[in-house]
Amino acid sequence: MYGGKAETAKLDQKADYVMDAETTRWQEMGRGEYGPMRAMMFGRLSFDGPMGEAMGNMGPFESFLLLVGKVPGATACPKQPG
Asked: Which DSSP symbol is given to 60?
């Protein structure tokens, strides 16, 4: 998992997917206010990739977000060097 801009020029449509949300939306999901499925339905989380493959991982992904949501952190991403 990578927390920045997609670096792959072309996604492997059988396995790769990109999810994008504003920092506040990730924080809301981490607090358990709603899960990634609901976020996608309401346009809070954008998705690009094989939906069927991603759906099979949605439960573990939601658990991951809840775990990460327990870790204190900043509200903005650090600046990349360069």
From this structure: H
Q: Enter the tokens of residue 44.
A: 């809070």
Enter the pTM of the model.
0.73
- Alpha helices (runs of H) in 17-77, residue ranges in sequence order: 23-30, 36-41, 51-55, 58-68
| Closest C-alpha among 55, 61, 48, 56 to residue 17 | 48
| Residue 5 belongs to a domain | no
**What is d(CA 18, CA 10) in angstroms, rounded to the nearest whole number?**
11
Task: For residue range 11-42, list pLDDT tens digits in order.
Answer: 777 778 888 999 889 999 999 999 999 999 99
Q: How many CA atoms lie within 13 A of 24 on its CB side?
A: 1
Number of domains in the chain: 1
